C-alpha cells in the first residue's frame, strides 16, 4: 500500500515550486506592452510577412534601380524595337517585358517608375500623418474653441472631392514636379488622420495615468508627447498604412489624366496613360506597369490589414 503521507508531501512541494516560479516570473519578467504583443502577432501572420517582403523589395528597387537594370528608360529605338512583344531569351534583360511604341524598354521603365510612385505615396503619408496628427491632438486634448475650429475646418476639407480638388490645385501649377504632386495630395488628405487622432486622444486623456501625471505637475507638452501620443498612435498607424496605397493610386490616376507628374518624369500612371492607344493589339504595354501598380497597392493594403489585426484587441 503506497505511503499517502509521502505522496501528499511530494505534491505539496511541487505546487510550492510552481508557485515560486510563477512569483519569480511575475517579479523579474517584463510585462509585454501593446507594441510588444503587436510585433509578436505580426511575426506570426503570413499576411504581414508576405506584404513586408514585397514592400522591402519595392523600396530597394525605388532606391537603387540601377541594380536591376542597366538600360536607360528614356532611350528608344523605333527602328528595331517598335512595340516589340516580350520574350524570355534574356531573363531580366531590357527586352524581358517588351518595348513601347517609342521603342523604350518597358522593364526599365517599370523599374525606374517605382521610385516616383512610391516616393509620392510615402511622402504624402508622412505629411498627412504629421500634420493631421498634430491637429487631432490639439483638437482632442484642449477641446472647446480649438476643437470647434479644427473640427469645422476638417469638415470643410472633408467635403472637397479628393481627386477633383487635387486636379484643381495642380492646374494652378505649370511645373508638376514630385513635390508639387505630394503637396497637393497632402493638402487634401489630412482630414481622416485628424479625425482618428482626435477620437483616440479624447479617449486617452481621461485615463488614470494621464490624470496622475497632471496631478503630479507634468506640463502639457510632456503629457501630450510622453503619455497620450504613444497610447493614441495605434489607430493612426493603421489608417496611415492603409491610406498609403490610396495615395499611390491617386498619383497614378492624376498622371493617367495628364495632371500628375510632368511628361519627362517616369511613373507607372504616365506609362499606363500612354499605353491606352495600344492596348488592343499590344496589351503588354499596359499589363506590366498596371500589374506593378496593382501589386504595390495590394502589398500596402495587406500590410495595413495585418497591422490593424495586431493592434486592435477586438480582432485577436
UniProtKB/TrEMBL annotation:
Question: Could you tell me the keywords of this UniProt record?
Answer: Cell membrane, Membrane, Transmembrane, Transmembrane helix, Transport
Keyword field contains Aminoacyl-tRNA synthetase:
no
Query: Where in the cell?
Result: Cell membrane
Q: Could you tell me which residue ranges the ABC transmembrane type-1 domain spans?
A: 114-304
Taking the first listed entry, what is the main subcellular location of this protein, grouped into a coarse class?
A: membrane
Task: Give the transmembrane region(s).
Answer: 47-68, 118-144, 156-173, 179-197, 228-250, 286-307
Name the GO cellular-component terms.
Answer: plasma membrane
The record's listing under Pfam families reads:
BPD_transp_1 (PF00528), OppC_N (PF12911)
InterPro entries cross-referenced by the UniProt entry: BP-dependent_transpt_permease, MetI-like, MetI-like_sf, OppC_N
SUPFAM superfamilies noted in UniProt? MetI-like (SSF161098)
Bilayer disposition of the protein: Multi-pass membrane protein
Which top-rank group of organisms is this from? Bacteria
Q: Name one GO biological process term.
A: transmembrane transport
Cleaved signal peptide residues: none
Annotated family: Belongs to the binding-protein-dependent transport system permease family.
Cross-referenced PANTHER family: ABC TRANSPORTER PERMEASE PROTEIN, OLIGOPEPTIDE TRANSPORT SYSTEM PERMEASE PROTEIN APPC
- Listed name of the protein: Peptide ABC transporter permease
Q: Which organism is it from?
A: Streptomyces tsukubensis
